[in-house]
Amino acid sequence: MENQLTPNSSIILEIRELLENARKNVAQQVNTQLLTTYWNIGRIIVEYEQQNQIRADYGKQTLKELSKELTREFGKGFSVSNIQFMRRFYQSYSIQQTVSVKLSWSHYCELLSISDENKRSFYEKESINSGWSVRELKRQIDSSLYERLLLSDGDANKEKVLSLAQRGIEINQPADIIRDPYVFEFLGVPENKPMLESDLEKALVAQIEKFLLELGRGFMFVGTQQRVTLNNTHYYVDMVFYNKILRAYVLIELKTTKLTPEAAGQLNMYLNYYAAEVNDPDDNPPIGIILCTEKDSIAAEYALGGLSNNIFASRYVLYMPDKEQLIAQVEAVLKNWHEKKDNSHD
Fold first, then answer.
1. pLDDT given for residue 157 in this prediction
2. Which of 131, 150, 201, 312 is spaced 20 to 30 A from 258 at the CA atom?
3. What is the pLDDT averaged over residues 76-80?
4. Residue 284 pLDDT > 90, yes or no?
5. What is the mean pLDDT of the chain?
6. What Å distances lie between residue 335 and 55, 157, 163, 215, 274, CA to CA?
7. What percent of the chain has pLDDT over 70?
8. What angle do CA 159, 160, 165 make, to 5 degrees?
9. CB 266: neighbour CB atoms within 10 A?
């Protein structure tokens, strides 16, 4: 009897890999050509406006006429708003080599909606570094990730702004993975609805991919309710992850109340256990994060101070934060930093 081919036959696997690679290469080539074409359309429009010294009101009319003609000849994709994006694309990336072919035109349309150059540069770098889809990029912009990172350690300054803009998120130490607050809007839980810790844990596991996106780069999910046994007594860590960049376990304790000293002590015990019993020789010391609804800075300082382990406390919210309020906080912190720096030179 002749051998029958199955979906996992070697010949099928080899041809499938060949076709998938071909599709990927074609898609990359199409994307590269599309970005180049749109960049050049933007260049032509800007140069035409400059040469003819077109005023703003005439410029709008020119784009309308251009949109009408291009749509008639080439079909969809040349709406006035899309042509405006092409124009802005060239103005924002006047050196074509600074355009990344790792991002799509849809990525750049989202990025071009951000007027602040440092903020736009940060989201561009992170989209590339983290491989965000357009939907994931939009979610991170909507959840004010940039502002949250600047405020996470309460010490935003110009150096930090420039670092995020030029390099994105650099993960060199445990503190670099912390955000405050964490945003769990993807759970769809009303803001004021009481929630048990076990229910919060189940909801996060059910949306683990979105939770991993919120946690950031390098996280791998290990499990929930991971057992820790000390003197024949069983304890359970709410959630355990492994960060492959820091090469460290990350233990998360969920609290549906404000931060308490007891939570810090309990997590410290878990970290000691992992360091002694779970870590491989190549692993770095484990990291602990307490996610709570409220965190008083003075109470957190006393609860977490003096501990040899890396333990952080961060708030979480169940809704998108007020973007304008976060931006105002960043501006206030930066203004205060500038004033301090100016006074130090007096």
1. 64
2. 150
3. 90
4. yes
5. 88
6. 36, 9, 18, 29, 42
7. 91
8. 100
9. 17
Q: What is the pTM of this model?
A: 0.82
> Residue with structure tokens 């994060």?
289
Higher-pLDDT residue of 311 and 1 is 311
Tell me the one-letter amino acid at 150.
Answer: L
Give residues with Cβ within 8 angstroms of 210, minimum separation 6.
186
What's the pLDDT tens digit per position in 150-203? 887 666 667 788 888 888 898 999 999 999 889 999 999 877 777 899 999 999
**Cβ count within 10 A of residue 99:** 19
User: How many angstroms separate the Cα of 338 from the Cα of each of 153, 155, 159, 341?
Assistant: 17, 12, 11, 5
Closest CA to 228 of 262, 196, 282, 272: 272
